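Attaching the record inline, Q. Sequence:
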Amino acid sequence: MPNVNLPTGAHLYYETHGQGEALVLIPSTGFSAEAWKPSQLPLSESSRLIIHDPRGCGRSVATQQVYTINQMANDIVALLNHLKVESAHLVGHSMGGRIALEMALNFPGRVKSLIMAASGSGQVPRPGSDCLPGLPHWLLLRLIEKGFEKALREEYCDTSAFFTDDFRKKNPQKIEAFFQSIWPTHAKLSEYIHLIIARHNWEATHRLGDVKVPTLILIGDNDSARSNHLAQAQSLKQRIAGAELKLLKGQSHGFFWQAPEETNEAIRAWIAKHRGH
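Structure, as predicted:
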């Protein structure tokens, strides 16, 4: 699959699969298009699936030294222009949801519907010191004390942040396979810090009343990640007019990989409901 030089300054890697209404999947912080394989590829049976490596991740390169959520949303708009796609359904996981939300706010005519998957609108709804903008103390401390790969492996594989305790206990091989699939194209340390800065200096809570596209908030009821995504989901539900909230029972932050069939079915049903919006 190709890379394309976008007018936004990103040399972006992307793939398209299948036919039908365009569906863009936007991954979590540091993840590449590989995160969706093979778990979300079945969505291409009913949609034109568009996946990409965000700037600084995997096979994509950014010419700028500063990354912002706004830039990454503009990258998707520019990619859709390149593909001659007028509008698309957006599914954003975690930081990917922030990018999708930024695009829905700035380019509502390009967004048929929005799925905020285990995501939020910024720092404001977070508890305690995590509501402060800037690099979080706990994250920097963990990266320094443990080292980059060990810190992320622990978060993705050894805690309940992404997978529930019971699932990890019963499926150690699946957990290891997941890490081996995402790590080779995961953002490296320098780019990862750029992405974290972008994530933690962005705020759109004050703009949620301006969201006019159909919005689904999708979250696991066991999502205990540091960002307190359940509280953020409630904030999204309260502030976005007409937003629907769907809780996935027994799931944590990584429901795309722990329960791909249930997750994909929720996405399919939502898109079928808002086809041609």
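Residues 69-82 form the longest helix (14 residues). The chain has a mean pLDDT of 94.

More tomorrow.
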